[in-house]
Specification:
Elements (H helix, E strand, L loop, with lengths): L2 H23 L27 H24 L4 H29 L14 E6 L7 E7 L2 E9 L8 E8 L2 E6 L5
Parallel strand pairs: 3-5
Antiparallel strand pairs: 1-2, 1-4, 2-3, 4-5
Length: about 180
């Protein structure tokens, strides 16, 4: 490969990777589906997880963009073709690793799955807006490290401040029953 061809590959890689990475970060990314069956070799003691498309595509684009930029640095430094390719591979790998690190941090920062109302059945709560027959109220309870405020319905009138137990889920509201006062 001649020096001019190599420089053209680096420029094309930098432009294409940067443009597609920018587009994907703006939400207008390309949706390309490749249906390939790749073998999954089993290697003892090594357990790989799956990488979703949302993580893999930015990693590939980060590699592509920085591959081109690294190669152009090699060209600007007047290095040999082999050194240019090695610089391009080093920059590309660093770009893919950076994107992977960013997505890993974002994944760890994600909250858990939302609490299902069914998980709250049997839990105690406090009435903050009176509930009763034909009158929807509001209850509040601490569960799973968060304070939940929920619409509530009841068979009998329950005053504000009273302790209740959640007995069922009715649509987006919880059905509550009064707890007997402590002895």
């Amino acid at each position: 490969m001649t020096q001019d061809m190599l420089e053209l590959v680096f420029i094309g890689s930098a432009l294409l990777g940067s443009a597609l990475l920018l587009l994907s970060s703006l939400g207008a990314g390309l949706h390309v589906r490749l249906h390939l069956r790749l073998p999954h070799p089993h290697v003892p003691f090594i357990h790989g997880g799956t990488v979703d498309d949302a993580t893999l595509m930015p990693m590939v684009l980060g590699f592509l963009a920085l591959f081109g930029i690294g190669g152009l640095f090699g060209v600007a430094a007047g290095a040999d073709a082999i050194v240019q390719v090695l610089a391009a591979l080093a920059f590309g790998s660093a770009g893919a690793a950076l994107v992977f690190a960013i997505f890993s941090a974002l994944h760890r920062a994600q909250g858990r799955e939302p609490t299902s109302l069914r998980e709250l059945v049997g839990r105690s709560a406090r009435v903050i807006v009176s509930a009763g027959r034909g009158a929807r109220g509001t209850v509040q309870l601490a569960y799973d490290g968060a304070l939940h405020t929920l619409p509530a319905i009841a068979e009998s009138d329950i005053a504000r401040g009273q302790e209740v137990v959640i007995v069922a889920v009715r649509g987006m509201a919880v059905a509550v029953r009064s707890l007997p006062p402590p002895p």
